[in-house]
Amino acid sequence: xxxxxxxxxxxxxxxxxxxxxxxxxxxxxxxxxxxxx
Length: 37
Description:
The chain contains two helices and no strands. By secondary structure, it is mostly helical. The protein is elongated and about 25 Å long. One of its GO terms (molecular function) is hormone activity.
């Protein structure tokens, strides 16, 4: 439905954040994880 590069980029980023957000947060937690490792 959207053709502009910006819109496509945002849609891809949204899909990645939704599908890979849980996995990323498990392997790369923000602050607490860096201290734990």
